[in-house]
C-alpha cells in the first residue's frame, strides 16, 4: 500500500528537481540533463501511459509523450512554440498543500494546491491532481499530472 509519507517524499523530490532545473537555466546541457532526469526518475513515460496537462499550456495542452513534457519544462521544441520552459523560471521554492488522497495497493491519487515562489518573492498558486503508480522497484512515478491556474470570476 502506498502511504502519505511516500507521496510527500515524491512531491519533495519533484519540487527539488524543478528548482534545480531553474538553477541551471544558463547552462543548456545541464538544465536539459536535469529535466531528462526528472522525467526518467519521477514520471512513468518509460513503462506506462502518462496523462500530463501542464499549467501553462493551451495550444498543445496535453503532453502524452516524453519529448512533449520535456519541452514544457525547458522549452526549445519547435513542435511546441508556446513553451518557454516552465522550470527555467527559476523558482526559489515550491510547496505542496495536499487537499486529499485516495490510496490503493499500487496507486495513489492526490489533489491540492502547490505554490511556486520566484526570486522576487512573488508566489504563483496552482491547482493540481497527481496520480502515482508504485513501480516494481517500489519507487513512485507520476502517471497523471494535471495542473491549472485557479478560476477567476
Question: Would you mind describing this structure in some detail?
Answer:
The protein has three helices and five strands. It has helices spanning 4-23, 28-42, 66-74, and strands at 51-53, 91-103, 107-118, 123-134, 140-148. The longest helix is centred in the N-terminal third of the chain and has 20 residues, at 4-23. The protein starts with a helix and ends in a 5-residue tail after the last strand.
Give the structure's gist in a few sentences.
The protein contains 3 helices and 5 strands, in the order H-H-E-H-E-E-E-E. It has 153 residues and is of the alpha+beta class.
Question: What characteristics describe this protein?
Answer:
alpha+beta; 5-stranded mixed beta sheet; 5 strands; 29% helix; Nuclear Transport Factor 2, Chain: A; 153 residues
Q: Pick out the low-confidence regions.
A: none
Query: In one word, what is the shape?
Result: globular
Task: Compute the number of structural domains.
Answer: 1
**Biggest beta sheet attributes:** 5 strands, mixed
Trace the largest sheet across and list its strands.
1-5-4-3-2
Number of strands: 5
Q: Helical region count?
A: 3
CATH A-level architecture? Roll
Question: At the first level of CATH, what is the class?
Answer: Alpha Beta
Specify the structural class: alpha+beta
What percent of the residues sit in helical stretches (DSSP H or I)? 25-40%
CATH topology, by name, is Nuclear Transport Factor 2, Chain: A
What integer is the average pLDDT?
96
Q: What series of H and E elements makes up the topology?
A: HHEHEEEE
Cα-to-Cα separation, first versus last residue: 40 Å
Alpha carbon gyration radius: 15 Å
